Amino acid sequence: MGGQKKTAQLVDSNGLRVDGRRIDELRPIKLEVGVLDKADGSAYIEHGKNKILAAVYGPREAHPKHIALADRAVVRCRYHMAPFSTEERKSPAPSRREHELSKVIRESLEPSIMSEYFPRATIDIFIEVLQADAGTRCAGITSAALALADAGIPMKELVAGCAAGKIEGKVVLDLSDIEDKQGEADLPVALMARSNVVTLLQMDGSLTADEFNQAFEMATEACRKIYEMQREALKTKYHIVRDVEMKDEMVEAKA
Ligand code: ADP
User: Fold this and answer.
1) What is the pLDDT of residues 118-139, one digit of tens each?
2) What is the pTM of this model?
3) Cα separation of 16 and 27, whole Å?
4) Angle at alpha carbon of residue 57, lines to 143 and 242, rounded to 5°
5) Whose CA is nearest to atom 26 of ligand 1?
6) Cβ(132) – ligand 1 distance below 6 Å
């Protein structure tokens, strides 16, 4: 963040960014639920150039047994970037950053999971970044929440993530990699949109109080939009399942 020498103008005289977006515009988002057969729940997200898979296993018996809790399920999370996910090969071994992100992503999802229904069990969340272009922790949260819902795990509500930040003195929504690297600040946020509970708030760089308020407002507003997209993605999957079941019933009835 701000550590590298400036190489490109990030906002032009028309107020447009390198990828043509306005300062308060989200990158295009595509969500798909139920993309892996073996997992109990799964989802895929494309958020700009980010491509991320999330898989959920559980609730299942805790292993090793000594990690089990008597009153609720243990939620575990692994965030991992594939070696081919960035321009320069990333070592496949988990880095300090990936350990940190696994922890903050877990903590941002836990408030939504009704883990008290499953004592002595585990719920495992895997987030695999196939292509990274900044904002992967937020996109990871958005897709993992869908994978949890797809696994049928009781949740208070969905969680959606989006960052805002500052580039060339302007507060902007949803930084891409070049903006993140050359910009002055990055503020990732995750939100449970219905109850208005913020489950992730981090800041890299510096913002004035006014800039912080503006960035926070932008990010939470974007989380609300993403929440609506998550609802649509879930509905789409279950409409498809219902249509297939109805077709099967018709075939059986005819036979
Ligand atoms: P986030 O992806 O949540 O914004 P960071 O701010 O730590 O997390 O990272 C910003 C971006 O920097 C990542 O999305 C990725 O594009 C890039 N990046 C992170 N780690 C590496 C790495 N080891 N090698 C190359 N690029 C990386």
Assistant:
1) 999 999 999 999 999 999 999 9
2) 0.94
3) 13
4) 70
5) 86
6) yes
